[in-house]
Amino acid sequence: MTRDSTQTTLESLGSEDITSLRDIDWTFEGADTQQFTHGLHNYPARMVPQIVNHLLSFYMNEGVIETGDLVYDPFSGSGTTAVEARLHGLNAEGNDINPFAVMLSKAKAIPLDRATLVESRSALLDGLEAELADVARRSEREGDLDDVALPDVNDGWFPQPHLSQLATIRDRIDALEADFGEDYARFYRIALSHTTRRVSYQRNGEFKRYRIAEADRPDHDPDVFDIFASKVEDNVAMMKAYSERVDHALETTIHESDSRSAASVVGED
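Above: the chain sequence. Below: its structure as tokens.
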């Protein structure tokens, strides 16, 4: 990405004229916080991307940082800084102690080839609805299925046959990884994570471990395929827009590590 193309990106983000940080309304009330890949997955207490966008834009305009420099985030979280860094033509490195945060940061910040993305999506979704329907029929008739290894989860968090359907999608993604690689499998696991939460007995709007009342659980019958396929389509559209905008030659590295020992991992694979 050249300096001119970086400037074009900044202009499209509406931040090319930032010469002072004093007069910015840092609440960014009403701003679109789901643009590009920022909307791939919910994350508690997520920093809005406009904060990072404006800070990076200001320091680039001031000449403090320039295209190709490295931005480091010691608390990567959902990857907001890593995404914004690449949108500004910058490399990014970070770490987080939460393994899901590491996975999400990579899924959001590492761009995917658009043609391969479409191909992998088709490979993942083709025939999936029929397969999940078959799993549901057999599960209701036979109980736990020998050909579907269920994850080790505590009782009372998932209905059946929905849990078996989720495990079937997991297996499809695992198989897809052999053909398309880790980055694509990771991207689809984010959609599966979203689906898993929607399918579980977790109460809506809660990040703590609160379940819906036992009396309400028999009526909890989410459509696993519809939730997953819809999320895949939404995420693919976001990734296409992001992938078209950023420089694929840049590097994003996220470590699963404690920030208190970051010096031992930054710069290493």
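The first helix runs from residue 3 to 12.
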